[in-house]
Amino acid sequence: MSEAITVLLVDDHALVRRGFRRLLEDDPAITVVGEASSGDEAVALAQSLRPRVIVMDAAMPGTSGLAATRIILANQPEAAILMLSMHSEATLVGQAMDAGARGYILKSALDLDLAAAVKRVAAGEIVMAPGVVPSDGLAGERERLTPRELEVLKLICDGLSTRAIAAKLGLSVNTVAVHRANIMNALGVHKTAELVVYAIQQGLVHPL
Questions:
Q1: 38: how many CB neighbours lie within 10 A of its CB?
Q2: 140: which residues sit within 8 A by CB, 6+ positions away?
Q3: Which three-class secondary structure state does DSSP give residue 101?
Q4: In a designed cystine with 16, which of 11, 56, 67, 101 is the match (CB 3.0 to 4.6 A)?
Q5: DSSP of 149-193
């Protein structure tokens, strides 16, 4: 049996933390190792507990979840931070991903599967809420990419590696790598996390 995924819960509301703890502890593959009620406490506990995943409330009094994320990742770049928010505005999602979060999900989602999201970010995937507000200019963005590039982009946003995309589409790894480079050049982004956020914001792909 593989080692359990250790999780630190960060939220300034005790009832919210309790609810999330119950959701996570129902899954035997996940162990909640600590709870923090502020950004400063999150930074301290992340340092002492070294959790694999940190479920972080975006908006807290004092040190915000965004600020805490930057501080934690500066010292523990291997940590996977899953941002939780009540807001789906594209600018807020972008700020979270710029800070280094690997996921952004909505507390208000009726079908919130927190355990699945934790497992996905722990595995290196990027998890995005389906409720992100897209920006304008969809048609113009689509015209920059070929149908094949849009197909590759969708699979990148699904968390597939270059090798996995190549296998799925029946292409060589080098061909997929070229498509990836062309997509990034066409859209003016140069990191996979930024590419995923941008693609979802612009409505180029629709997350699961």
A1: 19
A2: none
A3: coil
A4: 11
A5: HHHHHHHHHTT--HHHHHHHHT--HHHHHHHHHHHHHHHT--SHH
Residue with tokens 């934690």, as numbered in its chain: 72
Q: In the chain, what is the straight-line distance between the N-terminal and C-terminal CA atoms, in Å? A: 28
Residues 6+ apart with CB under 8 A from 169: 151, 152, 155, 176
Token pair, residue 64, equals 């915000």
User: Is residue 71's pLDDT more than 80?
Assistant: yes
Concatenate the DSSP letters of all residues of 10-46 into one string: E-S-HHHHHHHHHHHHTSTTEEEEEEESSHHHHHHHH
Element (H, E) at 141: helix 138-143
pLDDT per residue over 164-197, tens digit each?
A: 999 999 999 999 999 888 888 877 777 888 788 7
Cα angle: 70, vertex 108, 156; to 5 degrees: 60
Helix, strand or coil, per DSSP, at residue 82:
strand
What distances in angstroms separate CA 137 from CA 34, 54, 176, 199, one per listed residue?
43, 34, 26, 12
What is the CA angle 21-119-152, rounded to 5? 145
Taking a C-beta distance cutoff of 8 angstroms, is the pair 11, 39 a contact? Answer: no
Q: Are 16 and 107 in contact (CB under 8 A)?
A: yes
Pairing of strands 103-106, 30-36: unpaired
Please choose, from the candidates 109, 87, 96, 115, the residue with its C-alpha nearest in 3D space to the C-alpha of residue 9.
115
